[in-house]
Every structure is written in C-alpha cells, then in structure tokens.
Write a structure and sequence with these properties.
The protein is an alpha/beta fold and 259 residues long. The protein has one domain (68-147, 155-256): Alpha-Beta Complex (Maf protein), CATH 3.90.950. Helix content is 37%, strand content 19%. The protein starts with 8 loop residues before the first helix and ends with a helix.
Length: 259
Amino acid sequence: MKSKLLLPASAIAAGLIFRAQAASQDDPPETLLPPPPVAAAPARPAPPQVYVYEQHAIAEQPFELVTADQAKTIIDHFKSGYAKLGSPRILIYVNRDLATARPQPAGADALADKQTARDVERLFGRPLRLAGVNLVDQVVASQTQPEVREVGSAPNPEADQIRRNREALSKIADVVVEVLISSRSVIVPDVGGDKPYSLPDIQATAVRLSDAKIIGQATAAEVLNKHPLTRVARHADVNAVTEATALAVMEDMALGNAL
C-alpha cells in the first residue's frame, strides 16, 4: 500500500500568493483618460443701438361729453317721472322770442338760420324722444307769454294776438323748452402756437305753460366745463354739445320733479 504525500498548508498558501502576484504583473495598469475638450461657441457681438428721432402723435382715448351709461341713467330717471305726471306734451323752440313768438334777429351768427334751427330741434329732441316724450312741432305752434294790461287801457291788437296765440299753444303743449344757440370763440394752446376754436353756446330753459314756471335749465358751458378745454375744443361738435345740453335739462327737470 502506497502512502499519499501530503503538502503542508503553508506551502499551498505560498503557491496561491505567487500566482496572484504573477497575474498582476502580466496585466497592464488601467490608465484614466481625461474627458474630451468642449468647444465653446463664440459670443455674438451685441447689435448696435439705433436711435429714431421721429415724432408720433400720442393716441388719445375716445372723447365723450356724456357716456352711454350716464345718458341711459338720465333718460331712465326722466322717463319714470314723466310717466307719473301724465306724459305732458313738450314743445321745443329754437332761437325764438318767448314774448312775441318771433325769431331772434339773424346775422349775429350763422347758427340762427332755419335749417340749423331744425337740426338743433331734432338733436335736442332726440334724448327726449328716447324717454317717450310727446313732442310738439314748433312750426305749427307759437310760443307767447301773456301780457298784463291795466284796467281801462286802450285795446292792444298785438296783445290780443299774443293771448290768442298762447291759448292755441296751450291746447297742443304743456311744457315749452326754449333753446337759444349761438357760438363763441376760445383760444387753445397747440403745438404750433395758440389756435382759435369755435364752440356752440347753448342756453335751454323749460317752462310750464299752466303757470309759466321754469322747471329746468341748462347751458352748454356747464356741460363743457366738466372736461379739459383742449379736448372739448378739438372733439366736441354741435351735435354732441346739443344732445349733452338736452340731457342736462332733462336731468334738471327730473331732479326737481316739476314736470
């Protein structure tokens, strides 16, 4: 029987260490390569500044003497009071003498001609019509005031005619709105210097025929003074000023509840 050769444990461990060292000497050491360089894009030069020396007009907001909401509020308020008082008939007189029913002398202003008077009557009556007012045509009516005569005085044919005209008028109208219109010149600063403008000058008075009581008044100046003069002069025309003044009269009549 053959005997087996047994190697001591120390010899086996030494052989393993030798093999490991030999293997490590055969493999080349790992080398860490640096990352590739990143090419940066060249910076773009800033564009040169361009200066423009042109002048441009400043955009202005739309100009209104009376806004749509304000007009609706006035008309609705007037309509309510007008209906409660039995819808009285209203007559508009433009540039006529209340005492004699004669037109005001022309020549002082071009706005006094018949065509313009008709236009003013139409423009002034527009908000009244929107409020449902019964308007009487001024051509078929005559506005007069009664003339008081002393007892025993001589008959006055003109006064008798005035009374007859007034009696006829009272049969077709209950309230008369007297509208006097002319124009006035104002000077407004402008880019090229002071510049003259022509503005409508309107005075309106509402009179109740039953007792000759004034129940409403307004002027264009009161309406225009609520806005800068420069904008008023440049943008306010006869149409806008006339309708705005009519609304002011209606507001005054409604506030007084005197219809």
